Fold:
Amino acid sequence: MTRRRRLAVAAVGLLAAAVAPVAAHGAGLSGAADRSLSVPTWLFLTTGGGVIGASFLLASFVTDRSFIRRVHGWRRGGLRPARAARWLGRAVGLGGLAAVLVAGLVGPREATRNAAVLTVWVGWWSGYTMTTYLVGNSWPAVDPWRTLAAPLPSLDVDYPDRLDAWPSVAALLGLVWLEVVSPVADRPRFLVGVVTAYGVVTLAGAVVFGADVWFRRVDPVARLFRYFGRMAPLHYDDGVRLRLPGVGLDEPRLVTSRAEVAFIVAVLWVTTFDGLVATPLWRDAAVAVVGAGVPPGLLYPAALVAGYAAVCGVYALAVRYSKRAARTYLPADVLARRFAPPLLAIAAGYHLAHFLGYFLELAPALATAAVAPLSPPEPVALVLPGWFGGIELAGVLLGHLLAIWVAHAAAYDVFPGKLQAVRSQYGITVAMVCYTMASLWIVSQPYAVPPYVT
Structure:
């Protein structure tokens, strides 16, 4: 297969597989108003793809390695957090967990009035997750399971190195499958069961392998927030320091194995899958596939696994093309590890685009439920102005632009030649252009209830 043909295959594959994350359950909670475009769709999509392509060309003119190092090495501060701040974080985490369990068991059964549902989906997965990549990763201090695991005894069983981050990959895929096919965001009692089961597994793992090992190598939420925190301007390095957003992704030892690459690709895919099942396109395709004889119970797990394998294959194809274009003897695995972190910027941009409006719309309901968790009044949703959609689109584009820059900086760190560094970005840039066009298309789509889910 020629290089041009491989690049074309990569482009088509990404365009077919990569769609942005419209949270199925989240959109259901907020009402998911239909979106419409005031410009032709083709112009909307090609403009977005053109912005990413143009950003690659502009970044290619930045060839001064010392300038790139100065930008990425800029740091300020070093303030050590007070002990009281750590205790406050633990208290907030434990209090939030207790509120979810109590409100989920004895609170209203209506999802939009139950404090447990609103806390988990609006307060934690939407609002708090944004802080991990916009501000800094405070999850180690807030995580209630880490707090509960700290005083427990440990068997200190050696964690098998061959497992690496693969359990995190499997757990992340499993959690998203459960989120899509189950009533975890519609039935508070079921949500309590899921949270409790997650806690039991987490505490058991911390006892067997030790808390530090479990939360560093296995726990998928801790790993996700740790990676997202590399994008944030605040980070902990012998004190809390300020840096430019995104530069934490450009560290040579951030990703050290195939399993960690697989986890980052999984982060991108699960948001894609979560969005795919909430589109009219998926609804029509799912009905047709089940009508052809495929069992409904097999539809979602098969699509999840097959889609993930396809996205991994497309990323590997893009990396191999980059290796060939750069004419380097470096193994493809080395390039895959080095160019995987920029994908986190894309995933964060997707999350911001789709959950910022959702968070703001349901913030009044969350505040009401926090004041009266067991008997809140009817929720009142915030009505966002029409121009707010532009902010959501900007989130998608900014995530991709940041990814372009981080990949550009990584290339100049890996390759000694300037032209070699630029050529190495051809495959990655084509992939990002396709991601951009597909995600912008999804942003404009109306929400559709996923079929064949409980």
